[in-house]
Design a protein that fits this description.
The protein is α/β, with parallel strands linked by helices and 289 residues long. The protein has one domain: 3-Layer(aba) Sandwich (Rossmann fold), CATH 3.40.50.720. A seven-stranded parallel sheet has the order 3-2-1-4-5-6-11, with helices on both faces. Strands 7-10 form a two-stranded parallel sheet. A two-stranded parallel sheet has the order 8-13. Strand 1, helix 1 and strand 2 form a beta-alpha-beta unit. Helix 1 crosses helix 7, helix 2 runs parallel beside helix 4 and helix 4 packs parallel to helix 5. The radius of gyration is 18 Å and the shape is globular.
């Protein structure tokens, strides 16, 4: 079976590529893989002709769409470019998948919700409060035009790859104190476990919408303290603050935690924060050897 992974150098895409036992193809754009082969291609998903040509050539059984502009504040201040990547790029891939009859998996986000209640189920109404969330929801709507689709909404992904909260926190704790909101709640998710769930879901040929995220609902402040404890940093350097005092450019949902009971019933597994941080530590240590 052929699988085409977009965003193959990102947190989730790279894990899927490394774990998958299928015939893997990957596309990247900004971040070039450490080792290149003929199955890794540089493709700008905004380029409709290039997307169509690539998909037609590979003829994948599944397209796993991980690529996205995920920096929330950047999306808020660069709306045109964010839309072209997250909506236009998704539409290009969806339309190309129709030509070769590929099944389609789309990685979405807890930010499609407004965060007013938390513990969101798949059937709960969406109401994004920032432009990033709006683009990801628009992407979902394009995907839902397909006959064979699977949407996996996740939350606050972290991995050994930079540009996530855990590795950002390491840098802050090395240089001094750091303020983290005690009233901003999510479901932190280890990229490795999300990738495992995605591959299991493909094997089971699941369809529809699923929430796939870590098994704990936790504030950014308490998550930071657990990170510090797991990696031997001084927890006293972490100071609680209200989310509104951080002066984000884009609004954030206050509680975007996800109910994952539907995906758990399918035999998937997600760790709590303590165990997922142990797994992350093992990943980091193995990459250093």
């Amino acid at each position: 079976m052929k699988v085409l992974i977009t965003g193959v150098t990102g947190q989730v895409g790279s894990e899927i590529y490394n774990l998958s036992e299928y015939q893997n193809y990957g596309i990247y754009f900004r971040h070039q893989p450490k080792s290149l082969n003929e199955n890794l291609l540089k493709v700008d998903i905004r380029n409709r002709d290039k997307v169509f040509a690539t998909v037609k050539e590979i003829k994948p059984n599944w397209i796993i769409h991980c690529a996205a502009a995920t920096k929330v504040d950047w999306c808020e201040t660069n709306k045109n470019q964010a839309w072209k990547i997250n909506v236009g790029g998704t539409r290009n891939l969806v339309d190309a998948s129709k030509v070769v009859n590929s099944k389609f998996l789309y990685v979405s986000t807890d930010y499609v919700f407004d965060g007013s209640c938390g513990n969101y189920k798949e059937t709960d109404g969406t109401n994004p409060i920032n432009f990033y969330g709006k683009t990801k929801l628009d992407g979902e709507l394009h995907v839902k035009n397909l006959e064979n689709y699977l949407i996996m909404r996740t939350s606050h992904v972290f991995s050994p790859i930079p540009d996530n909260f855990v590795l950002w926190l390491f840098g802050k704790l090395k240089s001094g104190n750091v303020e983290c909101p005690y009233d901003m709640i999510s479901s932190p998710t280890l990229a490795l476990e999300l990738a495992e769930t995605i591959l299991k879901s493909i094997k089971k040929e699941l369809t529809g919408v699923y929430h796939a995220a870590g098994n704990d609902h936790i504030s950014r402040y308490n998550f930071a303290k657990k990170i510090a404890q797991a990696f031997g940093y001084d927890k006293s350097k972490i100071k609680p603050i209200k989310m509104e005092d951080l002066n984000f450019v884009a609004k954030r949902p206050q509680n975007s935690s996800l109910d994952i009971s539907k995906v758990l019933k399918e035999g998937m597994e997600f760790s709590n924060v303590v165990n997922s941080l142990k797994s992350l530590k093992a990943q980091i240590n193995s990459s250093d050897t």
